Amino acid sequence: MSNKPHSFSKPKRIASGQTFTLVMRRGGCAADDCLVVFAKSNGCQTGTEIPPSRLGVTIPKKTGNAVVRNRWKRWIRESFRTQQSLMPAGYDFIVRPKKDAVGSWSRIQRSLPKLARKAVQRIKR
Predict the structure, then answer these.
(1) pLDDT digits (tens, 9 = 90+) for 77-90
(2) 19, 103 contact by CB (below 8 A)
(3) Total domains in the fold of the chain
(4) pTM of the prediction?
(5) Which range of residues forms the domain containing residue 105?
(6) In the predicted model, is pLDDT for residue 6 greater than 60?
(7) Rounded-to-integer distance, Cα 56 and Cα 73, Å
(8) Is 97 part of any domain?
(9) Within-domain flag for 5
(10) Is the residue at 91 inside a domain?
(11) Concatenated DSSP letters of the chain
(12) Contact 50, 56 (CB under 8 A)
């Protein structure tokens, strides 16, 4: 794992389609006018060490063309990377833009940590 505290290395990414589906179906969900965040405990506990939170980003084609979708992805990943200390540890997060949302870096920066905490509170027990 990287020594950089704000890196976005492979262990912090969700790449499996099965994991995406599991988090979205069985996890908690929170939304505002910009983002929708799904959260589920990643269950990777090793002893007393809390595992890092992981991020998956999904951008529907209805959001816009490739340029717009890639911009959304960059903004969400960078927001997660720079605000990891504000995010609950030990969870998988799936983030997507709200339907018809107009994205901006500042709105995503404000929304992501708040919605992550709210989604963790709403996890189905």
Answers:
(1) 999 999 988 988 88
(2) no
(3) 1
(4) 0.85
(5) 10-121
(6) no
(7) 10
(8) yes
(9) no
(10) yes
(11) --S-TT---GGGB---HHHHHHHHHHSEEEE-SSEEEEEEE----BTTBPPPPEEEE---GGG-SHHHHHHHHHHHHHHHHHTGGGSPSSEEEEEEEPTTPPP-HHHHHHHHHHHHHHHHHT---
(12) no
